[in-house]
Amino acid sequence: MTFLFSFFSLDHCGSRLGTKTMLGRSLREVSAALKQGQITPTELCQKCLSLIKKTKFLNAYITVSEEVALKQAEESERRYKKGHSLGNLDGIPVAIKDNFSTSGIKTTCASNMLKDYIPPYNATVVQKLLDQGAILMGKTNLDEFAMGSGSTDGAFGPVKNPWSYSKQHKAKRKEKPHAESEDPDWLIAGGSSGGSAAAVSAFTCFAALGSDTGGSTRNPAAHCGVVGFKPSYGLVSRHGLIPLVNSMDVPGILTRCVDDAAIVLGVLAGHDPKDSTTVQDPFKPFTLPTLTDVSKLRVGIPKEYLVPELSREVQSLWSKAADLFESEGAKVIEVSLPHTSYSIVCYHVLCTAEVASNMARFDGLEYGHRCNIDLSTEAMYAATRREGFNDVVRGRILSGNYFLLKENYENYFVKAQKVRRLIANDFVNVFNSGVDVLLTPTTLGEAVPYKEFIKEDNRTRSAQDDIFTQAANMAGLPAVSVPVALSNQGLPVGLQLIGPAFSDQQLLTVARWFEKQIHFPVIQLQEIMDDFSSVSENEKLPSISLKQ
Amino acid sequence: MWARVARLGRWALVGGHRAFATEVCRGGGRVTAEVIAHLERLALVDFGSREAVARLEKAIAFAERLHAVDTERVEPLESVLEDRCLYLRPDNVVEGNCVEEILQNSHRVVEEYFVAPPGNLSLPEME
Q: Per residue, what are the HEC states of A76-145?
C-alpha cells in the first residue's frame, strides 16, 4: 500500500478525469458555478434529492426535507437571478445531524423519546446556515442522543458506510456480487455523526453538521473518508444543539475537503448571546492561506498514542505522515502527554454525570414521548423514560447518577474533574514547549463490519474507539481528521491534527497543506457513476465497466 | 520516524500502558439492591435486567482506575473557559410571548397549563 496513494491522479475534492460534474466539486467550485449560471440552485437541489433517494439503503437520513429544500432553492435562484447572492453558501445543499433543533422539522435525536418532536426554533448554527442561503436537505441519522461510536444504536436503524459498496472495497473483498440491500457484511459508518459523514461521503450534500463530544465528528469522518472538524470549545454556539455533555459538546463540520470546512466555520463561528459559553472575542471569517513553506512548523507526535491496539496499517500511515512533514522541512518532535491512559476513564465519568443531568429534562410533560400511566408524576416519568430511552442512554443515566451520589461525588466526579485538569495541562505544556500542532491517528483502524461491531456493548466500543479523539474534547481544543489513504481492504483511514485552543485557523491551514500532499481517492459508488453519466452526454466519459 | 516508532513499539509492549483497552472486570457484589433501588428512584429510570446491573458494575470497575492518579493539590476543572468572564445578557425582555409554541409539543394541555398526574405519591416499588 503506497502512502501517496492515488487511484486516479487527481486532486482531492475534484471529480474524475477532468469532467467536473457538479456533485463532485468542492463547495467553492459549486458556488462559483452557481454564480456563473452553469447550474441553478433548483437543479443542484434536485440532483442531491435524487441521489439521496438512490442511496436510501445507507440510512444516512432520518428526515429528508424535500419540500423545504426545493422552496429554499427557489428563493436562492431568485437571488442569483437578481445578482444578490448571499455568499459562498447560497444555494448549497447541506445536511444537519438530527440533534440540532430545526424549526418545523422533526428533530428526533434518533430516539423514541423525541420521535415526533418538532422544535419551534432553529439552533443558532442552523439559523446561520439558512441566513446564508444554504439548502437544508434533511436531518441525518446518529446514535441515540449522540451516545455511541458506530451510529448503530439509533431508534431508526444503523447507518451503513458508503465505502461498503465502493468499487475500491469490493475489489479487495473479491466476493460474489449481490444487490446492495442484501449485503450482509456492510461496514459501520462510525459515530455518533455517522449519518452526516455518510451523507457527505456519498455526495448527497456539500457539507453536514455533526456534533462532537468525544470524537463524534472525527470518528465517522475517518471511517467515511471525509474531513471532520471539531472547533475550539466556545467558538461555535451550542444553542439549539440538544446537549449531551455541556462542558465538552461542540457542533462539528463534515465536508469533502478542508477548504470547505473553513468556509462553513466562517459562517458558524462567533459569539452568540443565546449561548453564554461562547467566547466574546470578535471573530472574522478567513480564507485559508496557502501554506507553501512548512520549515517553521513544529509537529508533535505524542508517544502515549502508540498503543498496542493500533492497527499496523494506521501506525504505518501515521509514521509516513510524520516522515512527510519532516521531508518537507518541518520539525517533527516526539512529545509526551503523560495522563493519556487515564483520559478515557475520566471522560467516562464526566460524560455519564453530565448525561444524567441533561437527560433529566425528558419527563413527558412539556415535549416528547409521554406514556399512558397517570397514577402519579413519578410513575409517569419513570414509565415515559423507560419507553423513550434505549439501553445505552438508560445505562449512562444510571452510571452518572451513581457517580453523583453523595458518597461517591468526591471519589469519582470531583476526582475526574481533577484528572481532567491534568489532561488539559498536558496539552498546554506540550504546546508551550514549542509545538504548533500534534499529529495522531483518529481511530484504531478502518471501519469494521456491523456484525463485528455489535459483539461488544456500546460503552466498551466507545471506550475503545474514542481513545484518540476525546482528549481534545476534555481540553476544549480544535482538532481535525483528514482522510489519508485506503487500507488493504480499500477502506478510508484518517489522521488527526490537534492545535492549541482558538488556533482553528492555523490548524486548518496546516490541515489543508497536508491534504494537498496526499491524494485521497474519490469513492467510486455505482449510484454516483450512474448520476454522473446521466448528466453529461456530451462530455467524454471513460469506458469503465460499472457492472459488477 | 520509522526507527523511532519501532523503538516505541517495543516500549509499549514491554512497559506499557494496556490500561484502557483490556479491562479487569471486578464485577459482582459491588452494587447492592439498596443502591439499585436508590438509583432507580433518583434517575427515574429502571435497570430493567440483570445485564444492566452488570453493566453498571463494569462501569464502576472501569472508573476505579482514576484512583491511581495522584491529584494532590489539583483543583477540579469545571470548564475550559474558567479564565474568562461569563457573558450575561442585559436584563431586558426582548423576546417571548410565544405561549402557543411552548405548549404545542405537549401531549396534555389544558388552557395554558401542562397537565401532570398527582405529584405527592412516591414511585411504587418495582420488581
A: HHHHHHHCCCCCCCCCCEEEEECCECECCECCCCCCHHHCCCCCCCCCHHHHHHHHCCCEEEEEECCCHH
